[in-house]
Amino acid sequence: MTISSKLLKLAHPRWLSLLVIGLCLGYALTALTRLPHWSLPLVAALWMAMGTWLNWGAPQSAPSASSSRRWPWSLVPIALWGLYIYLSESFGIVDLGAVFFHLQAGMTDHGGVSRIGAAIGYTLTMVALLAAITWLIRHDRRWSLTEPFLAMALLATNPLLYGVTQRGAAIVTDDGAWLDRQYVQPVILEAPEERPNLLLMYLESIERTYADRERFGDAYADLDAIGEHGLAYEGVYQIDNTGWTMAGMIASQCGSPLMPAGLLHDRQFTPLDKVVPGVDCLGDLLAEQGYRLSYLGGASTAFAGKGIFYKGHGFETVLGREDLQPLLDDPDYVNNWGLYDDSLYDFTLEEMRRLDQEPGPWGVVNLTLAGHAPRGYPAQACIDRQGEFDGVDILYSVECSAWLARDFLERADAEGLLDNTIVIIASDHLTMRVSAWEQLIQGERDNTFMLLGPGIPVGRESREASMVDVFPTILEAMGFTIDWHRAGLGVSLLSDEPTLLEEYSKTEINARMREERALQERLWNGLAPEPQPAPEQEKQEQVVETPVDSTGEEPAAVQ
């Protein structure tokens, strides 16, 4: 047999179908388990060997004529598994709350260009896989008979559907208000005589877990150095619905997990025009105290409702990629998501100078991009300092983010902009899947949270807390007196009051959150348009009989 005839035989749909299924199965196993990537061809080879041994797709196993024309039951279950694997590969942990929220809040101007390419690749792969399954059930009676059971097994084991059913349990649960009963309306009871300024720095995905030098070397060293001048917290864990950027911001500024609006409004296919309008957040309270507030982020403010959130909660100035990119010396010096962090910090410094020249306290919030999964976006200033970036190593980007934050604070301090300023440094959430993923998930992970400034003690403190506790902690760090050291679901870590995580386990809180309805309604109260009163019907003109029409009869008496 010639080489060309052998290749022609291997190109038969039977072998192509088995090969496609084997490769997809191998990829799924390496993506969802800790199997190394080199095991993918091994899994595919074992699958091909089993298919050869069992004669799958061989002519003698052909099904009946009716079966040879039917479509597989497993088309949808396999597609759902493909979606789950894509989300898992992209983000590490699939958070349905994030999926629902971004669908509602809007996904325009996002920076996931690389993930769009991956999505196209996944789609083409799924088409090939479905074609392979279809060919086998149409050409092998055994596959035709057992495939419906495969479909049921795939549906029953898909974590994506498991999460949907858990969220659906909130509809029938006996108690959907457990978290809402813990909620304390944020109220400032007393303000300090001299109100300090506020600088709140969110470092994208730079969790405190990176501080472990045995696993991650000196990647976090500059943040450790910053923490030596203030109060650094350990044990700020991530509960459900706080694990993406907007959720982390809302948790730390509103004291509540971000529970998506769901079916609480009647515009399911249009972006939201309000974000958590039912609660008062940090910006609302500070604006009432006379603060002038600004937000600056490297990414677009249109993505995920960031601009809507800040404009709706007390911020006068909200600047993102669309506003800042035209002001760059080189407008092409941007990445998929937006501005590099060295540019963002320059603009933040300019905004602080502007605000500091005017009377009254100010607050500035910024959000970086250098640590964004999957590989980060290190700025040119970091490349000049650290050497060439290999395009993969997230620790390079973590080191870049930490160094730029330290450099920015040193520049601001040198100009006297931090003399009466409380500085908060926090990760917005734990990182998604990155090159150091296996090292990160070896143990408990926690968020970065540091306080610096006048009156802030120096040291390290360990508390079992979550991002909702950041909100009241910021208020008390600024000298405000709040009700029972609480705001929202959070408890000030500067007090001795127990946090939710110190009273209840993370598992219990997450379970309660899946059943919660009342807190969700509180967050989104006012989102649905007010019912409009029915238009008054025009009064019909009374018809009066003319003398010609009159019968001369008296009207009947009312009984």
TrEMBL record:
This is Sulfatase-like hydrolase/transferase. It is a multi-pass membrane protein. The chain crosses the membrane at residues 40-58, 116-137. The keyword Transmembrane applies. InterPro entries: Alkaline_phosphatase_core_sf, OpgB/LTA_synthase_biosynth, Sulfatase_N. It is found in: Cell membrane. It comes from the Bacteria. Residues 522-559 are annotated as: Disordered. It comes from Billgrantia aerodenitrificans. PANTHER family: LIPOTEICHOIC ACID SYNTHASE (PTHR47371), PHOSPHOGLYCEROL TRANSFERASE I (PTHR47371:SF3). The keyword Transmembrane helix applies. Residues 197-479 form the Sulfatase N-terminal domain. Keywords: Cell membrane, Membrane, Transmembrane, Transmembrane helix.
